[in-house]
Amino acid sequence: MKSKLLVKDWKKVLVLSMSFWAQVIGLLVLIVPELLFAYTGIDTDPAILWWAATLLLVFGLVGRLFRQGDKLWAEWARIISVLIVVTLLALFASSEAKANDRESSTLDVAIPLIARWEGVSTTAYLDIVGVPTICYGSTRGVVLGMEKTLGECTRLLREEVAEYRCGWIAYVIPEAHKYLHSRREAAYTSLAYNAGVSAIGRSTATRRLNSGNVVGGCHALGWWNKAGGRVVRGLVNRRKDEIALCLTI
After folding, report:
1. pLDDT at 121
2. Is 101 annotated as catalytic?
3. Could you say which of 45, 103, 127, 241 is catalytic?
């Protein structure tokens, strides 16, 4: 006796439907890791799994709009192709999200540190070596007589610190990223903001970090304590703060 609750071609749907299996696999991606953690304590990357499950469910919904084929191999080839695409998209999306989270965490540490040591002036002035400076140590395009509001200075600081952070981290080899966390990254970013991206990117501090000598790299930050060829007490103290931040675990 045929059930009136099921569609007439339910067996075909069960075997061939790409949309059906995309949604089933999407649900499994959400449920299985939770069961694995509950029974074994083994954790998985939630960002990748969230993106994978979401994309599979979206593919499943969109797939309902397309006619299903009659050949088993062709439909399963489509399903496998979808799984490959979803996996690649999930890896890319989660890596982008992690990069953005790491940048945000670094800026949350670096900006207060830099602001405290740079101080703020809404009117352009000459710094210790005679360079026109405004806001929190910004020198780009600054001329004496220039003025900015405190809000403009705050926005400028975040934009420039983010730019210096991206500029410096380009000198860090992929293998050395495992040594970085928001505080260590903030310490190097603070120094790059103060002394220049290229100088710090090519410095002994960065080369030591790239070689795996993390502690040596942190201590080398302290070498940048001169301005105009002489040691400056303020820079010595600033470098101490950056070294301490860099050495935190």
Report:
1. 96
2. no
3. 127
